[in-house]
Write a structure and sequence with these properties.
The protein has a domain of about 250 residues: 3-Layer(bba) Sandwich (FAD/NAD(P)-binding domain), CATH 3.50.50.60. The protein is about 40% helix and about 25% strand. It has twelve helices and 21 strands. A hairpin with a 2-residue loop joins strand 9 and strand 10. Helix 1 packs parallel to helix 4, helix 1 runs parallel beside helix 8 and helix 10 crosses helix 11. The structure holds flavin-adenine dinucleotide. Flavin-adenine dinucleotide binds next to helix 1, strand 3, strand 13 and helix 8.
């Protein structure tokens, strides 16, 4: 039973489809992207996420909506130096892709609806889950709905996960005091597949390549400024955004609607409880700088799906304590490295002090010039760490 049909819960359902498992997907909203609020996020997906989404047929379905990232340009306002990475120079066709979040959600919803072996319990909200012998049972808000019984409850209900709390798993919260304002726009110059990230003391500004010469803009601003910036006329908003980003892509024009997102870090204290396991934002929600949240969630999905498929094929209990502990142990290093990196980047790029400025300049120069560091950062950014990074390195050299 998967609780939560966001990008992570849907991916897990797709990854389990066809394995002979009985999977139920529960979401409090219908499986239809038009019922959700406006969403103007453009998600940068790493190469490892591309492979996961390809394996379930979703990336192919996105077609031209998935724009390849052919280069990365990172700089810091008012400071010397920039890191410029080219996928071609690194011997790769792309570092990943950028997709509009709502298109990705719609493609996943279509794919899940097309699977004949996923039981959809939507719109339904789980109000209570409890252990019942060798299974877990869930009751729904709609008192008339039949309770569900499963071997395992996968908790994928997002950062404010009520099921995580109900399972007795605490979480550490950090409010960044910032909002991300997202919109699409068209810069005067061709983006040429380059993703730009400019660090300012208020927060980063990113322009991510999109089809048709457009870009997905993400501007992280102090929470106190968010309402004013969201209410500005297009022309005035572009003037302020241009001030923060500069003229690297010429004039910024024709903005689409803007949506603001409050930014928090939420880290679950552990990933498992009896017959329950956390994935995606329910396990960890991170600052969007560095674009790691969904990428990390998709790696949760890949690791869990592999274990569940193997357990099913070998006749083992899917909610077995050892299986869940094995999953948590396998995710520990990536989880710690990625959440730590995102947090350090979010804090470190906004510090004002002279040593912080010096360190930033040095870090950008090193990321630009130091070959081993550049390769390490590129592989990490592409979603390959530890054994998988060694495997990609070996493949690249072979
Ligand atoms: C501005 C911004 C930019 C970002 N950019 C990037 C990026 O470039 N790259 C990247 O990798 N990540 C990015 N992220 C992070 C990414 O968006 C999230 O990590 C990802 O969407 C999390 O998906 P999820 O399915 O875990 O959670 P959610 O999307 O929160 O889904 C949770 C689901 O659970 C359902 N639900 C909740 N409660 C219940 C219940 N009781 N019963 C049943 N269902 C329930 C909800 O309806 C929802 O469908 C960004 C985030 C933000 C805010």
């Amino acid at each position: 039973m998967i609780a939560g049909g966001g990008l992570v819960g849907l991916s897990l359902a797709l990854a389990l489809s066809g394995a002979g498992l009985r999977v139920a997907l529960v979401d409090r909203l219908p499986l239809d992207d038009t019922v959700r609020g406006p969403d103007e996020r453009h998600l940068a997906l790493s190469e490892s996420s591309c492979r996961i989404l390809e394996s379930v047929g979703v990336l192919q379905a996105l077609g031209a909506d998935a724009e390849p990232i052919r280069g990365i340009h990172a700089s810091s306002a008012g400071e010397f130096g920039a890191a410029r990475w080219s996928a071609a120079d690194a011997g790769r066709p792309r570092f990943g892709v950028v997709v509009p979040a709502r298109r990705l959600l719609a493609a996943m919803q279509r794919a899940v609806r097309a699977c004949g072996d996923i039981e959809l319990r939507v719109p339904e909200s789980i109000t209570q889950a409890w252990i019942d012998d060798d299974a877990i049972k869930a009751r729904f808000e709609d008192a008339g709905a039949t309770p569900l019984r499963a071997r395992l409850l996968v908790i994928a209900d997002g950062a404010d996960s009520a099921l995580r709390t109900a399972a007795g798993i605490g979480a550490e919260y950090h409010d960044y005091g910032r909002h991300a304002i997202c919109c699409s726009l068209r810069p005067e110059r061709e983006h040429a597949g380059i993703g730009y990230e400019r660090f300012t003391r208020a927060g980063p500004v990113a322009l991510l390549p999109q089809a048709g010469g457009r870009c997905g803009a993400v501007w992280v601003v102090p929470a106190a400024d968010a309402a004013r910036l969201l209410a500005l006329a297009d022309h005035d908003y572009l003037a302020e955004l241009q001030d923060a980003f500069g003229y690297r892509l010429g004039r910024l024009r024709t903005p689409g609607p803007r949506v603001g997102y409050p930014l928090r870090r939420v880290l679950a204290e552990r990933l498992t409880a009896a017959r329950r396991v956390l994935v995606g934002n329910a396990a960890q929600a991170v600052h969007p700088v560095g674009a790691q949240g969904l990428n990390l969630g998709l790696r949760d999905v890949a690791a869990l799906a592999e274990r569940l498929r193997t357990a099913h094929a070998t006749g083992h209990d899917l909610g077995d304590e050892a299986l869940l502990q094995g999953y948590a142990a396998a995710r520990a290093a990536d989880r710690a490295a990625t959440t730590g990196f995102s947090h350090a980047l979010a804090i470190g790029t906004t510090l004002e002090s002279a040593p912080a400025r010096l360190l930033r300049t040095f870090a950008l120069l090193m990321a630009d010039r130091c070959e081993p560091l550049r390769e390490h950062l590129q592989l990490g950014g592409m979603g390959f760490r530890g054994a998988s990074a060694a495997w990609v390195r070996a493949g690249a050299h072979a």
